[in-house]
Amino acid sequence: MPKRVDHEQRRNAIIEALWRIAGTSGLEGVSLSQIATEAGVSKGLVQHYFRNKDEMLVHATGRLRERVGERIAHGLAGLPAARTSRTALRAFLAALLPTDDGSRTESLVANAFLIRALKDPAIADRFRDGNTQLRHAVVGLVSAAQAEGDLSADLDPARETDILLALVAGLGDALLLGHHTETSALAVLDHQLDRLAPG
Amino acid sequence: MPKRVDHEQRRNAIIEALWRIAGTSGLEGVSLSQIATEAGVSKGLVQHYFRNKDEMLVHATGRLRERVGERIAHGLAGLPAARTSRTALRAFLAALLPTDDGSRTESLVANAFLIRALKDPAIADRFRDGNTQLRHAVVGLVSAAQAEGDLSADLDPARETDILLALVAGLGDALLLGHHTETSALAVLDHQLDRLAPG
User: Fold this and answer.
1) Domains, chain A, ranges and CATH?
2) ipTM of the complex
3) Which among A111, A116, A191 has the least Cβ separation from residue B115?
């Protein structure tokens, strides 16, 4: 199936181009022509794969979810085999922080999409699904860490998940803006996690 | 000085127009002509007050800070005279959440400016100043609540401020996206504040 692979590669190359533009200058006034130039293809080819900019943006949010998922998986894979759920929880949350070029771009793209999500139900649905998956995973890790005795049994996993995800989202913006460094953001996260340990 | 007042009113009317556009469709591809149309004035008049779009955006971020300051002041003014610092801290943080049309627009505008801040030192400076002021105010309220015995004396006010401000920022995005309601976001905030009470 060499043809099929080729199509997917081209499609991904176009999305990656949109991505690079969104990560450096936002989605402000980005045109199909600009995206074509950035991807090194013709505008016609872009239009062959995506009917319009909105369709491309929906694809780009899908790619965003994939990349965040890959980043989390990578963070978890870097842990020792004898990892605890508490350690996995920390690695999971840390993977959501924009601490290198790749995750920084993801955060910028997510921010660029935020206003669009408020007007575009397809993008809003993707954000909602992504958020539900994240919550589900974090609730699972909090519960497991409670079962392992590393987090207090008294905690409501759903409530703590709400706090941890909002905290990481806020720290992410602060990192982008230079109000936190990677070190200080992780220290804030660790402080909150330490507080959840059995008393 | 009627002339001077008139100039300021016109300038503000133009900024309010930029504001309405940013709050509904972001800063994507917004042009001086669009802003002029929204403000009900000529493009020439817009150019009389602002040399270019960037100058207008810097003014708009200044207006953002003013509005957030007014909102916080309003939240604090609504408290009983015998308010505690703990109550003031809660009102202060709650005022930063997008819970009505005005604060929702402010959050959207702040988000629309985030990527710009990364490229534009003038806007980044304004964000940094605003953040420093916010941190200073929250550190003061946490310290005062500790002195009044309503928050644990063991806490590091700067560290707790980092957590609370990041939490509120993350909850704000979740509110905009509909992942939280006002009630659930406030419940999350209250849960974190309750945890800071003396044991």
Assistant:
1) 1-50 (1.10.10.60), 63-195 (1.10.357.10)
2) 0.89
3) A111
